[in-house]
Amino acid sequence: MWPKLGSKLDQGWLAVVRRGTQLDIAHVLRSTAHLPEILLLESFAMEADETASLTRLAQGHNLKRYRCVTLMRPGSYRVVQMEPPAVAPEERLEAMRWRLKDMVDFPVDDAALAMTEIPGDVGRQPQVFAIAAPRQAIGECMKRFGDARLTLAAIDVPDMAVRNVAALFEESQRGLAFLHVSGDGILLVITLQGELCLSRQIDLPAAVLAQSDKERHEQFFERLALELQRTLDNFDRQYSYIPVARLMVASEFSAAATVSALARNLYLPVQVMDLAEVLAFPSLPELRVVERQAQALLAIGAALRDEA
Asked: Which helix (H) or strand (E) holds 133?
């Protein structure tokens, strides 16, 4: 989304994404004739200094020949749904800047802004997502990559990375709900025709699923199902013209158990995400494990960035 710097160095995108104390690297190549292919996927323990980690990886793995994309960290940006300003398209971003003044907790005068349209219906007021990040957060991100001598061509947000993956699983003319459960957080998106229709961070401690306490697991799943049902019901009231066909789940923590627990409490069909259905990765046998797919989902989704 922002910024777009440098020139194309290699085909596809190399995503470099922080996940807890790990740095995930994914290189994906899109093709019009075949499934998108994951050419590279690796995870590295991060040193105390993130810039030092990036520098070490850049030097040790010849990453300087790629154009890189990274993601903002949760909490360092805001996604706000609103009506688009009634101005010329080229003036929308600046007009939104003033609207956002009372909607975010950081100065918007020099914040980075992007906008994505929500699929609409005839006779309905159009809606958009405004995505904003403070200048300081963007600057710090750019500096880390610059100090590591890496070509940072784009900075995106996790919502759009998950959108990129969810879009691959869509059915024609039907919406898809996609849930990503990780140690860094829980993100629900709904997509239609490759566009983001809803994005919501769910504030529940998914890390409890890494423990062996079954009672806490059940409590977590009950609360998660309740939050999902409320969100889906509200979405159906607001966007009744978007039929949501199913909920797909990518979970780092026993994906099958997560799906089973949610299926007992939701009216939608619930399925485990398996990237083997939509992506090729012949040289990466580790991705046959769906929990590993979920671990690397943000990096893979960021690397699925489409120029169009």
From this structure: strand 127-133
- What SS3 state is found at 259? helix
Confidence of residue 9 (pLDDT cuts 50, 70, 90): very low
CB under 8 Å to 142, separation ≥6 — which residues? 3, 152, 155
Phi, psi of 260 (to 5 degrees): -60, -45
Instruction: Write the CA distances from 226 to 40, 213, 215, 220, 267, integer angstroms.
Output: 37, 20, 17, 10, 12
Q: Tens digits of per-residue pLDDT, 41-92?
A: 999 998 878 999 999 999 888 888 899 999 999 889 999 999 988 888 888 8
Q: Choose among 41, 28, 27: nearest CA to 295.
A: 41
Tokens, residue 181? 């459960």
Q: How far apart are the first and last CA of the chain?
A: 12
Compute the distance between CA of residue 158 and CA of residue 302 in angstroms, rounded to an integer: 8
pTM of the model: 0.93
Question: Of the candidates 62, 30, 61, which has an alpha carbon nearest to the alpha carbon of residue 43?
Answer: 61
Residues of the chain by 3-state class (helix, strand, coil), percent to 5: 35, 30, 35
Tokens of 307: 């120029």
Which amino acid is present at 93?
Answer: L
Q: Are strands 112-118 and 127-133 parallel, antiparallel or unpaired?
A: antiparallel
